[in-house]
């Protein structure tokens, strides 16, 4: 397994960007084939960047025996959307980045059924926004994600500079593609809907929103795996449940042997 830091110029954003990559190693993976390698795009939360998952979890250890590449980009604080201030993070990550990755790593799969996306908190929102807003990913996972802003209208009023810069006014946000459930309602008409995974801790302030979002996603006809447990908005739980995501994905996930 190799950990690669790729710096590239983003034509969409007009600046250099960094993306962290975990790349499988033939000698560590049973039955490794150096073609059509499955890919997981893994997104950070509001306080993070492309280094967060590696710095805060044992992710590299978890996948060292599994044939999967993990791509970890950064959206800064831009919520993975095309912001009103002109930074088009959605286009940069959903459309441009897969082409950049394919250019440098042509043996990674471009097939929908071998491309997946997941994230935590803001990244959980981002995974659903990018996943439902394209037809590139067959599986989408959220850990403690902001899957609905219902009841959070006050944030737009309290900090209009930030939230307005990201989404515009509350009225502009509602029923737009940036509202996950509105997007999901429209995307359910796709012939092949992605499979969904959601986890949220019961002590998390986002828990009730996740409960509501999951009920709506199921009502829309999405194949949704929902897990909940005692837990807060914390890396302890995200480290635990990213392994559950890996088990859920249609890959031959090989668990690391644990020392007793």
TrEMBL record:
Entry-linked InterPro entries? AB_hydrolase_fold, Esterase-like, Mycobacterial_A85_antigen
Q: Which domain of life does this protein belong to?
A: Bacteria
Quote the PANTHER family the UniProt record gives.
DIACYLGLYCEROL ACYLTRANSFERASE_MYCOLYLTRANSFERASE AG85A, ENTEROCHELIN ESTERASE-RELATED
> What Pfam families does this protein's entry cite?
Esterase
Q: What is the organism of origin for this protein? A: Lactococcus allomyrinae
Listed name of the protein: Esterase family protein
Regions that span the bilayer: none
Q: Which GO terms describe its molecular function?
A: acyltransferase activity, transferring groups other than amino-acyl groups
